Amino acid sequence: MAKLESKIPNGPVAEKWTKHKGKINLVSPANKRLIDVIVVGTGLAGASASATLAELGYNVKTFCFQDSPRRAHSIAAQGGINAAKNYQGDGDSTYRLFYDTIKGGDYRSREANVHRLAEVSTNIIDQCVAQGVPFARDYGGLLDNRSFGGVLVSRTFYAKGQTGQQLLLGAYSAMNRQIGRGKIQMFNRHEMMDIVVIDGKARGIITRNLVNGNIERHGAHAVVIASGGYGNVFFLSTNAMGSNVSATWKIHKKGAYFANPCFTQIHPTCIPVSGDHQSKLTLMSESLRNDGRIWVPKKLEDVKAIREGSLKPTEIKEEDRDYYLERRYPAFGNLVPRDVASRAAKERCDAGFGVNKTGEAVYLDFASAITRYGKEQAHVKGLNEDDPILVKKLGQQVVRAKYGNLFQMYEKIVDQNPYETPMMIYPAVHYTMGGVWVDYNLMTTIPGCYAIGEANFSDHGANRLGASALMQGLADGYFVLPYTIGDYLADDIRTGPIDTNHPEFEKAEAAVNAQIEGFLSNHGKNSVDFYHRKLGKIMWDKCGMSRNEKGLRQAIKEINELREDFYKNVNVPGKSNEFNEQLAKAGRVADFLELGELFARDALERTESCGGHFREESQTPEGEALRDDKNFTFVSAWESKGNPSKAKLHKEDLKYEEIEVRTRSYK
Amino acid sequence: MNLTLKVWRQPNSETKGKIETYKIKDVSPDMSFLEMMDVLNEQLMSEKIDPIAFDHDCREGICGMCSMFINGEAHGPDRLVTTCQLHMRKFKDGDTITIEPFRAKAFPVIKDLAVDRSAFDRIQQAGGFVSINTSGNTQDANAIPIDKHDADKAFDSATCIGCGACVATCKNASAMLFVSAKVSQYALLPQGKVEATDRVLNMVNQMDEEGFGNCTNTGACEVECPKGISLENIARMNREYLYASLKG
Hints:
The structure holds 2 protein chains of 2 kinds.
Chain A: H1 16-23, H2 29-32, E1 36-40, H3 44-56, E2 59-63, E3 81-82, H4 94-104, H5 111-130, E4 156-157, H6 163-181, E5 184-187, E6 190-198, E7 201-209, E8 215-219, E9 222-225, H7 246-253, E10 258-259, E11 264-270, E12 293-297, H8 300-308, E13 321-322, H9 324-328, H10 338-353, E14 362-365, H11 367-380, H12 388-414, E15 423-432, E16 435-436, E17 449-451, H13 469-489, H14 503-520, H15 528-543, H16 549-569, H17 581-605, H18 629-632, E18 634-639, E19 648-653
Parallel strand pairs in A: 1-2, 1-9, 2-5, 9-17
Antiparallel strand pairs in A: 3-4, 6-7, 7-8, 10-16, 10-18, 11-15, 12-13, 12-14, 14-15, 18-19
Helix pairs in contact in A: 3-6, 3-13, 4-5, 5-13, 11-12, 15-16, 15-17, 16-17
Chain B: E1 3-9, E2 18-24, H1 33-46, E3 69-70, E4 73-74, E5 96-100, E6 109-111, E7 114-115, H2 118-127, H3 148-158, H4 165-169, H5 176-187, H6 190-193, H7 196-209, H8 220-224, H9 232-247
Parallel strand pairs in B: 1-5
Antiparallel strand pairs in B: 1-2, 3-4, 3-5, 6-7
């Protein structure tokens, strides 16, 4: 059994990272040339880590399942990236970013890691600007900022609604430079099928070439998993279609503990489900809550009329609208954290106030922002501020400049013009705070195997604040892992190339082949998606925005039955030696069917409510989440024992030295 | 609505392909085009026919992975969207829809509608970057003020998603719009100016090596680009290239 040692350095929290960097082992430039590192995934974390490791001199092999590293799903992040630059002079600081992140995470993240994240946040912005990332600027030529949920300062840097795209293309360009130099070997359309552990150390991976089906062995002195989160266990989520848990699940099964699997982020502002054919959900950036006001009608008869199509939302009078976030949380209003906003939307819809056919939608309204901006522009231009048509036109121009691509996306999907009528939104699964357990060096419980970015668990506790995922991905990849990995690799300078003929490679490859053969010879009656959709429904109904003991127990039972049925009755057409998307999907869904059970077990175990994890049994009289710090101030880290029902729970106690643990309030 | 689909089927790059016809019923106008393809694939599998391979990932119009040439247009009849954001409400009951892969010598077919666009990656590897290390030890971000108009223009160029619609649309299968978008982004920013000469020469050189055709200024690429990348970029790249060639 691996030991759960967080390896947090001693000393005051603000000095830990600097001191740690000064003390850890380094690998000399000459020796780095003798060391191979595998990186799985090319999102912000994987691409930035690959680039930096290659610049340092390591031989890097990078893998992605997409046709190009630029397609990784970080590309879809919209709103922005946080950094404690305090360019706005509004009282921001490293400490405040650290504090906001801990509080936002509902006191379930590791203090030392979060402080380090806040420390390096400013470097990220400097780095990205130097790389030519075109962030938004104001007319003086300096960088612009906006606000995100759960904070009272403007620290979010952005590039319209395509911040993730611009940051990822920046990291991709840094990677390309190293691919051109031959320091990174890039494997597109390759899926990691398993990790190879030799004498207790990660020594390589088995991959499948998705074009021709070849099973390949790749050896390395360390393996870095940067494969993102597992939101697709819900089938419908804002993740890309290919996003999967398989890389992290495979290492879990080979000895890496899986932490806090039940901590999932349900994002409040997504486009509602339109029908049974739905294959995925689309996010509308949190940045929209800077200017959009969320409401539902106050009267049920208005709701009915809207659903019947006899009343338009714009016809409802101001006094008949319930701006429920502003009502319940006056201090933060529409910018409360995501978990709070999502639950509040669910509460209103459950009470019958949902505004679309399915009753699962609320309004996000830009009318007052359009008027406010329009008046401001009219004033600046010396035009008539009382001309409503002019004000609307000018206001729409400002809103278009800020959120143009998001409004266009909404219009294409829903076929309504959000400049004229409020958007309809509903919460959807978006991000997973849980992930592979890592120590302060980002190493998993398998020596030599690291997990970075969304794939690990460490920085966001039970709820992630907006614009912090991009920050963590790049922090881990550019500035943390490349240092900490040297501490481990310093012992490997004499190892020499890893022999891929070792029996452990053979064993792993044989197991991969056996699974593929099993799927192809099954000839069942149901498609892979049939099972994925069913699993998603169990997860959403019983492990979604609110959870209770009865539902979770039932979920565990149903997932077990579904998994059994999957192996009996799944149909995977085609052959193994060809481009076969169904086969790739079958492997991914098989892993989701195991993760789903562990997820439910973790949620069952944690009888408190915290962040995105809401247990109905644990709430205040006003319906707010009620934490149980006495019994649950820990990270749950699950050790695999084969079947997820046998997984063993370990606990890492969280100690707060710097921040006083308090009830989170956004009132 | 009920539709007839004529779809390009090709088992792999070595085998010749052909058009197959399929019928699909009860398509909802709210479905995206790819969701319609999902439904079709479920139907094909239940009839023991190999499902149609096509590339897709984010399904929100930003990753650039989906392609498809629909009724003779890259990403179909709608403007400023990728195939994944194209909705069935753009079609009528009884329509026949022809679906082909993006065709170009530099984009060989992998299977059915999926093509190999790795030539794009190799062009980026030839020069689509600023040569600074990622140590974070650069100057403060606000030490480089950039004219907002230039920054906004650079951003517009940088929004290219690398889908290849421009190549598929161009009668010469030229990649000029794609390459010029990256060249422009950096040419407009002070950070990119330092190595502007090498960049444009190397990227254009790689583009030619990959077998993309030349630009004859018909502007079709701009019309079909899902991100509205403008022809101005090509003009800027030509200027940069001319300047770089003279400078040597």
